[in-house]
Specification:
Layout lengths: L7 H8 L33 H14 L2 E2 L2 H9 L26 H14 L3 H13 L17 H13 L14 H6 L27 H11 L26 H16 L18 H13 L3 H14 L1 H7 L1 H14 L11 H6 L7 E2 L3 E2 L22 H11 L14
Helix pairs in contact: 1-15, 2-4, 2-13, 4-5, 4-6, 6-8, 8-9, 8-10, 9-10, 10-11, 10-13, 11-13, 12-13
Amino acid sequence: MYVRRSAAVLAAVTVIGTVTPAFAADPTPSPSVAVPSGLYGKADPTYDGVWRQSLALLAQDTVDVQPATEAVDWLTGQQCADGAFAPFRADVSKACDAKTPVDTNNTAAAVQALAALGGHGAATGKAVDWLKSVQNADGGWGYLPGGASDANSTSVVVGALAAVGEKPADVRKGGKSPYDALLALALPCGDEDAGAFAFQPDKKGVLVANADATAAGVVGVLGKGLVTGAGKEPADAQKCLGGKNPTPADAALNGAVHLARDLSGTGYLKSVMPGAKDQPDYGNTADAVVALSAAGLTQRGREVVVWLEQHYAAWAEQSGPAAYAQLIFAAHASGTDPRDFGGTDLVKQLNATGPAPRAVAGGASGTASAAPSGEEKEDDGDSPFGVWWYVGVFLVVGVGIGFLLSGRNKGK
């Protein structure tokens, strides 16, 4: 979950004080570093290698595809000795040091993927120990160790804890659990945007509704990960529950109802990228399907899937393997067949972005990953509107520069 529109360059430009987006003119620039053969996607992996690999492997496992050994080996080889993962280590023979940009999100995503594949208990155990060591006093996590807690990072770590059999409610720092951190970011009943989650409080401590954070928060307070099935349908999904002090279950349903309200009319969530007025945010829309389904609003999620089936192709082809994985997660959560997603096969499209899998459900060989043609063309690189936006934004937020998120208007 939480794959965001990208350009790591935006984060870099923001850090030095310029707020004008600096997207590359070429939507599929050549990688500045060599892309390893075991890695999914062809774009420069510097900022999202582990993230996109983790999502790709997890999605394959979800649909009974056995990933290529070299793909799994590439991911495990990225881990630092202390258990953490950075977005990409070009030279894994060099030990990680204080300058290695390890973070909670790549680490938690890798845990979820490796736990699902099985047989990687030592690696996931070390990674979870590291995540626990950088938990904040409010019970949550920021993108970077020591960064202020945010809904998205906290939720993806919750998913990692759950994946290895931990009870997130029992993972505490200063007496606070991840659920305490997430509930502190939920807008209470009576607020104009009741039910939504904020990414973080703004500079004045005010909670501002954020669709990305809401989708993440719903799944997080339910103790779920990137892959989740449909929850029990609620008896009443109309009124806000819990007042100013909702339980995790109340907060999850409130958040899902808020997302459903935002999706009404258009069928998609709108992008908040500069200059993208009224344009769809495909990734956040797919995330919303997972959140709706997890909270029991599965039928509403299926309605949104219909819109995605009709419009996803160009976005996914540009954005690469993490986008295909994200769509597979949405299909899985809503009970939709990912092999017949608007008439095309998401699994085949994902497999085509990396090394041929060892086996595909039904006895098919890894040759099913051969590059498709036409609409199912292999992706030729993650565009500036792919997963790097997610990574770039949180790198900025992790060092205390949060104004990029202040542009996320209420109700988005």
